[in-house]
Amino acid sequence: MRRIIYSSQGRIEWDAQSAFKLTNYYTDLEEHMVFCYLRQYVEAGSLKLCTYCFDSTAAGKQDLVLSLNPNPEHQSGYLNLTFGIDGIECLEKITEPCNSSALPIKCEGLAADSIAFSSHKANDQQGYYWCGEITLSKDFLAENFGAHLGEKSILALNMYKLFLPSGDYASLFPDNINDKNKRSDFMQEFVVLNY
């Protein structure tokens, strides 16, 4: 079953988007059953993503991993983006199982017109949380994946909350292996529809 991601020529408020919650916990520790969710939409061909993580111990750049294929109908390669409240740790393109190649971008000092990241932290009635906002530009998606996100486009993804060094994790969609070279097997599809 495909889920919906909306597209617009302008900004869509985050509260108007569906929240996709991480519900698959691969841990026995209650403190690792953290509430996290993802919201996303397409703005003028660029993919906008927003993560929320209710984790009082959040720190560093290795908290979440987004695995994304913006063009699954025509390309098997996908993006692994590891990030946290302090920024992006790693950005890599997985081209084939057991074979990764770095994208022609550095993890530090990413070009603002290719990928943008910002984060903030706050408290509300549910407790402490941090939020990460990511923009993958339409040029970045076209150059690296041949993707042009518009009406009826398909993209596939999964998101992971990591607990290092224990190896525990949670995922948006079931993935009981958590091997980055096999993450494409556990991605779910989204269809882009006009807002």
Topology:
Blueprint: E1 3-8, E2 20-21, E3 24-26, E4 35-43, E5 46-54, E6 64-69, E7 78-84, E8 87-96, E9 99-102, E10 115-124, E11 127-136, H1 138-145, E12 154-163, E13 168-171, E14 188-194
Parallel strand pairs: 1-4, 1-14
Antiparallel strand pairs: 2-4, 3-13, 4-5, 5-11, 6-7, 6-12, 7-8, 8-9, 10-11, 12-13, 12-14
Structure description:
- By secondary structure, the chain is mainly beta.
- The chain has one helix at residues 138-145, and strands at residues 3-8, 20-21, 24-26, 35-43, 46-54, 64-69, 78-84, 87-96, 99-102, 115-124, 127-136, 154-163, 168-171, 188-194.
- Strands 1, 2, 3, 4, 5, 6, 7, 8, 9, 10, 11, 12, 13 and 14 form a 14-stranded mixed β-sheet that branches.
- A hairpin with a 2-residue loop joins strand 4 (35-43) and strand 5.
- The model is unreliable at 104-112 (pLDDT under 50).
Question: Order of helices and strands, N to C?
Answer: EEEEEEEEEEEHEEE
What is the approximate shape?
Answer: globular
Kindly state the mean pLDDT as a whole number? 88
Number of helices: 1
The SS-based structural class is mainly beta
- Report the span from N to C terminus: 20 Å
Q: Count the beta strands.
A: 14
The helix fraction, in percent, is under 10%
- How much beta, percentage-wise? over 45%
For the CA atoms, what is the radius of gyration? 16 Å
Largest sheet: 14 strands, mixed
* Parts with pLDDT < 50 across at least 5 consecutive residues: 104-112
